[in-house]
Specification:
The protein has 325 residues and is an alpha/beta fold. The chain has eleven helices and 13 strands. The strands form four sheets. The protein has a five-stranded mixed beta sheet with strand order 1-7-6-4-5, sandwiched between helices. A hairpin with a 3-residue loop joins strand 12 and strand 13. The longest helix has 22 residues. The mean pLDDT is 97. The structure holds coenzyme A (COA).
Length: 325
């Protein structure tokens, strides 16, 4: 089996910033409530003319440049998203065309906030078994397009953005372990009820605001803390490592209180945790990858460091991944 690592990173965050102060004018909320309950200060919103693929393409171009590869070097493009441009064709097809990645197979995966780690694991398999040489894994979301801007329970939490990584064979380091999980027994905790084959769009679904994210935050909070703690422990056990071996934890950025509760349970000091939730909110598939990209750009991840990615999301799905940089 070949060793697989991340050889290039990129991101794109839309220019428009929506602050908590602006949200105070839209729903019955306060900056104090949002910051103390979630850690979020502001989030980015794509413009009306920007779709998820537009964000993904910009992140992908930066990742290719940083990997020093041309689009035609790519064998595979995976886009993790729950807000693709349209139900079909895939957003990955749109990205493939825009990049002119002529050789690449391309598809989307839907694993919500765990989408990027699920995507990493697929790309890892293709490269480690020798089927492909270079893969691009993108996490991209325009969650503002499915956010109910009249629902204070959810609208303060989400944002838009994209991050991308190029994976290839590496001589040293690379992906050490990946653990994925799913429990689909309670879909009502977090979903988008209409617009699929179960409830196609009708006047009634629109009137009932069923094309927006529905969430039972309180219940999810508890499950997220437990599941992310266990996922991190399992990925470490698979790698025969302990937390002492980890230089930086890059968790899914849903709520800083979830992240700190996980850190406390695992006995990890706060300075080993990377947070960017205050600037972007929860961007589902795009959260963990943009956090990783920014940690690399800021020098928080250096060559030889060992990084743990840890996530949880709608499905429910979860995953953890250890990478030696
Ligand atoms: N502004 C002000 N008050 C708000 C509010 C807002 N934006 N949103 C909810 N509230 C109110 C509620 O109505 C409730 O009021 P009540 O006590 O009068 O009924 C009160 O705040 C507490 O609500 P609760 O839901 O218990 O708050 P919480 O501390 O659990 O925080 C979340 C809410 C959503 C921030 C938190 O539960 C969370 O982050 N959950 C997990 C989210 C998650 O993991 N998502 C998906 C994984 S990707």
């Amino acid at each position: 089996m070949r060793r697989v690592g991340i050889i290039g990173v990129g991101e794109y965050l839309p220019e428009r910033v929506l602050t908590n102060a602006q949200l105070e004018k839209m729903v019955d909320t306060s900056d104090e409530w949002i910051v103390s309950r979630t850690g979020i200060k502001e989030r980015r919103l794509a413009s009306e003319s920007e779709a998820t693929s537009d964000l993904a393409i910009k992140a992908a171009r930066e990742a290719l440049k940083s990997a020093n590869l041309a689009p035609e070097d790519l064998d595979l493009i995976i886009v993790a998203t729950v807000t693709g441009d349209m139900p079909f064709p895939s957003t990955a097809s749109i990205v493939q065309n825009a990049l002119a990645a002529k050789k690449a197979a391309a598809f989307d995966i839907s694993a919500a906030c765990a989408g990027f780690i699920y995507g990493l694991s697929i790309a890892n398999q293709f490269i480690s078994n020798g089927a492909y040489k270079n893969a691009l894994v993108i996490g991209a979301e325009k969650l503002s397009s499915v956010t109910d801007w009249k629902d204070r329970n959810t609208c303060v939490l989400f944002g838009d953005g994209a991050g991308a990584c190029v994976l290839s064979e590496v001589k040293s380091g690379g992906i050490v372990s990946i653990y994925l999980g799913c429990d689909g027994s309670d879909l009502s905790l977090l979903n988008l009820p209409a617009g699929g084959s179960r409830k196609p769009a009708t006047r009634e679904t629109v009137d009932n605001r069923m094309h927006y994210i529905k969430m039972q935050g309180n219940e999810l909070f508890k499950i997220a803390v437990k599941t992310m703690t266990e996922a991190a422990q399992i990925a470490l056990a698979q790698a025969k490592m302990t937390f002492k071996d980890i230089d930086l934890i890059v968790p899914h950025q849903a709520n800083s209180r979830i992240i700190m509760a996980v850190a406390k349970r695992l006995g990890i000091p706060e300075d080993k945790i990377y947070l960017n939730i205050e600037r972007y909110g929860n961007m589902s598939s795009a959260s963990i990858v943009t956090a990783l990209v920014e940690a690399v750009k800021e020098g928080r991840v250096k060559k030889g460091d060992t990084v743990l990615l840890d996530c949880f999301g709608a499905g429910l799905v979860w995953g953890a991944c250890i990478i030696n940089w």
